[in-house]
Automatic annotation (TrEMBL):
<dbReference type="InterPro" id="IPR010994">
    <property type="entry name" value="RuvA_2-like"/>
</dbReference>
<feature type="domain" description="Elp3/MiaA/NifB-like radical SAM core">
    <location>
        <begin position="59"/>
        <end position="286"/>
    </location>
</feature>
<dbReference type="InterPro" id="IPR013785">
    <property type="entry name" value="Aldolase_TIM"/>
</dbReference>
<dbReference type="InterPro" id="IPR006638">
    <property type="entry name" value="Elp3/MiaA/NifB-like_rSAM"/>
</dbReference>
<keyword id="KW-0408">Iron</keyword>
<dbReference type="GO" id="GO:0003824">
    <property type="term" value="F:catalytic activity"/>
</dbReference>
<dbReference type="InterPro" id="IPR007197">
    <property type="entry name" value="rSAM"/>
</dbReference>
<keyword id="KW-0949">S-adenosyl-L-methionine</keyword>
<dbReference type="Pfam" id="PF04055">
    <property type="entry name" value="Radical_SAM"/>
</dbReference>
<dbReference type="InterPro" id="IPR023874">
    <property type="entry name" value="DNA_rSAM_put"/>
</dbReference>
<dbReference type="GO" id="GO:0051536">
    <property type="term" value="F:iron-sulfur cluster binding"/>
</dbReference>
<keyword id="KW-0479">Metal-binding</keyword>
<dbReference type="InterPro" id="IPR051675">
    <property type="entry name" value="Endo/Exo/Phosphatase_dom_1"/>
</dbReference>
<dbReference type="InterPro" id="IPR058240">
    <property type="entry name" value="rSAM_sf"/>
</dbReference>
<dbReference type="GO" id="GO:0046872">
    <property type="term" value="F:metal ion binding"/>
</dbReference>
<keyword id="KW-0411">Iron-sulfur</keyword>
<protein>
    <submittedName>
        <fullName>Putative DNA modification/repair radical SAM protein</fullName>
    </submittedName>
</protein>
Length: 412
């Protein structure tokens, strides 16, 4: 590896980190340095890289410790056999970069991942050393998100949780068969074992915090994971079911989906063409349906077509509604909250406004229009004062299936 300066390393390792989608900063403990102690804060606004649930833009320095790796996962551009330019930060370089960017108000936290160098334990030691130095040597109080390595010693993963706000442990692919075929050096059982251990440690820390205010925190923003979409043959129905299982078993804060992108000198076992980016978006919408709209995984999967894929031309909530027309129309003045959430086009905030408003008057279609962004999509699915739709159908004038075209990301 040629000798590179810090700027050159940053260019390589920040670009290499762009393939990791699980970069968010919500749900952590509030810390700041306004009392004159420490440096950094988990609150505030800055350059936008990630979004908190309340809409705040959070800036994170998102880098790899190194893009060298002893593993040869077929889908990874940083795999051992890949012909890419390699670079590696030292622990002190990452620490100083984080502090320098923070002092210039460029960032509010750090997202750190890495390829595997020497061994899983050695790599995890380096990642933990960065977080430990920031917290203990520099009293850094900003946000830290660490990507952990499931094969590493559990004690190292525990130490990561002590210093980080959020921990990520990637399941990589939706199915065991896909993982075995495309990442044979990774073990699904070990990955889930690490996630189970992290869940237990997070729950223990929360119990201790309820009993003793001085108890140390442990990954207060929880754990998340990422699945690559389109690299194997898993359909959307299988991905939805897998995500639901992960949420239930490991109490994850988020499951992230990353559309597979063809890489240079790709293995012959990989598809030659990337999946539509809209597919990734539809999976996020289906994820939202389970987490915030009360849909069961089987109901979301019911929105798929005969090939198990979510339609790209309409969102999955509308697809489900069209398959269950007997459920509609829903009376917005009488229906319970869980039924209002099933109306296409109605979000959680709009439903809350409707429930609050109907306590004082019966709502008309115009009232609903003022409480939402667009009334066009939802009109066939609801009853309001003075409004009852005709039979729900696929008539062209309903505009339920707009013509869409998947654009290429780098099209001229």
């Amino acid at each position: 590896m040629s000798r590179l300066d810090t700027r050159e390393k940053l260019a390589i390792l920040a670009d290499a980190a762009k393939y990791d989608a699980s970069c968010a900063s919500s749900g952590t403990a509030k810390r700041d340095s306004r009392g004159g102690k420490g440096i950094g804060s988990t609150e505030g606004m800055g350059i936008c890289h990630a979004y908190a649930p309340d809409g705040r833009c959070i800036s994170l320095l998102k880098i790899l410790l190194t893009n060298s790796c002893i593993f040869d996962c077929h889908y990874c551009i940083n795999r051992k056999s890949s012909n890419v330019r390699r670079a590696r930060f030292t622990v002190e370089e990452v620490v100083q970069l984080t502090l320098a960017f923070y002092r210039r108000n460029y960032i509010e936290g750090l997202f750190l991942s890495s390829g595997i160098i020497r061994s899983s334990d050695y790599t995890m030691e380096q990642i933990v050393a960065v977080a430990r130095s920031l917290r203990e040597d520099h009293d850094f109080r900003g946000y830290i998100h660490l990507k952990t390595i499931p094969d590493a010693d559990p004690e190292l993963i525990r130490q990561a949780g002590v210093h980080a706000d959020r921990i990520s442990i990637n399941v990589e692919l939706p199915t065991a068969g896909g993982l075995k075929a495309l990442a044979p050096e990774k073990n699904g059982a070990r990955i889930e074992g690490a996630m189970k251990g992290m869940k237990g440690a997070i729950e223990d820390a929360r119990d201790a915090k309820r009993k003793y205010r001085s108890a140390p925190g442990f990954a207060p923003a929880g754990q998340s994971t990422q699945m690559i979409v389109g690299a194997d043959a898993a359909d959307d129905g299988a991905i939805i079911q897998r995500a639901s299982t992960l949420y239930d078993r490991f109490a994850l804060r988020r499951v992230y989906y990353s559309a597979f992108s063809p890489i240079p000198d790709a293995s012959h076992v990989l598809p030659l063409k990337r999946p539509p980016l809209l597919r990734e978006h539809r999976l996020y919408q289906s994820d939202w349906m389970m987490r915030f709209y009360g849909f069961k995984p089987t109901e979301v999967a019911d929105a798929t077509d005969t090939n198990g894929m979510l339609p790209l031309d309409i969102d999955p909530k509308l697809a489900w509604a069209l398959k269950h027309r007997e459920t509609f129309p829903v009376d917005v003045n009488r229906a319970p909250r869980e039924m209002l959430l099933r109306i296409p086009g109605l979000g959680v905030k709009a439903v809350n406004r409707i429930i609050a408003s109907r306590r004082w008057r019966r709502l008309t279609l115009d009232d609903i229009a003022r409480l939402t962004v667009s009334i066009a999509k939802m009109r066939p699915f609801l009853i309001a004062e003075g409004w009852r739709p005709t039979a729900l159908s696929d008539r062209a004038e309903l505009h339920l299936r707009p013509k869409t075209e998947q654009l290429e990301l780098f099209a001229g």
